[in-house]
Amino acid sequence: MTKTLQSGPGSAAHHAENRQKTHGCQNSYYFYSYNKMDTRSKDKTHSDNSTVTASAGAQASAQVQALLRLRELILAGELPGGARIAELTIVEKLGFSRTPVRAALARLEQEGLLDALPNGGYAVKTFSERDISEAIELRGTLEGLSARMSAERGAAPVVLNEARDCLRQIDALLNQPALDAEAFSCYVNLNARFHALLSEMAGSAVVGKELERVSNLPFASPSGFVVVQANSPKARDMLIVAQDQHWQVLDAIERREGSRAESLMREHSRIAQRNLREAVRSQQLDQMPGVRLIRKRS
Q: With contact defined as beta carbons under 8 Å apart, do 36 and 237 qualify?
């Protein structure tokens, strides 16, 4: 019987899964392998197990699809902030059964996009500018802790190499005299990849899980406000500053300088704080996914 690796940030399965994703700006994909049983005496057992596995796989796939679709509806504003969400209504809207929809609703509550109502059901959560600022600060604190742990414990050479390769790809992007929409999109993917590798270096499932949770909020991810920079005349310059901080924190981790690595990552999150302030004042704020969830000041 094949042993199943437990997944989750920091776990062996999670690390293996990250390595099975394509690098750079390509879409992620996964490899699945199936063990074949050779003896005829095990054919029936194999058939039964395959049926169960296929059923479980289909259910898991439906849950993921329901989650992605529901999150998309919320961030696109089709389910407005404060709106009550009934399970049956979502079942009819998405075309999934109640089980995957129920799981998707529960997951989005954990992520902070929904509030559970006392009498049942959920409501789409809204955020103040202060909420978002605090979420970004929390991410910076957790990433600082993760960087310090990586430096003090020693990061795996294979992960360090992947991080260097990721930063070299960002360098190549930023060497262009101007960045178009495709370049910005590629930067967002590479930036997310680098931050994920930083989390992996720490080897802490606890810190990794908390980082994943806070980064799932609409505006708290490492690239949450990069889109606001796209049409700024200083866009490339700001990304170059962020990229220099990337290289500096990687250097601190390799030199086993925990305090320096932590300080650099906390300072790095201040770029997102500045982007937040610019986003709130920006006339192009409506381009951002989830912007309708920000409560306007009265």
A: no
Question: What is the DSSP track for 62-84?
Answer: HHHHHHHHHHHHHHTTSS-TT-E
Q: Which CATH superfamily is domain 129-293 in?
A: GntR ligand-binding domain-like (1.20.120.530)
Q: Give every CB contact of residue 294 below 8 A, 6+ residues apart in sequence.
A: 126, 127, 128, 129, 132, 219, 280
CATH class of 51-124: mainly alpha
The first and second tokens of residue 139, run together, are 């991410």
Who contacts 26 (Cβ-Cβ below 8 Å, separation ≥6)? none
Tens of pLDDT along 116-161? 999 888 999 888 888 888 989 999 999 999 999 999 999 999 999 9
Question: Which residue is listed with tokens 């650099």?
Answer: 264
Domain with CATH 1.10.10.10 in the chain: 51-124
Q: 216-232, pLDDT tens digit by residue?
A: 776 788 876 665 565 56
Phi, psi of 276 (to 5 degrees): -60, -45
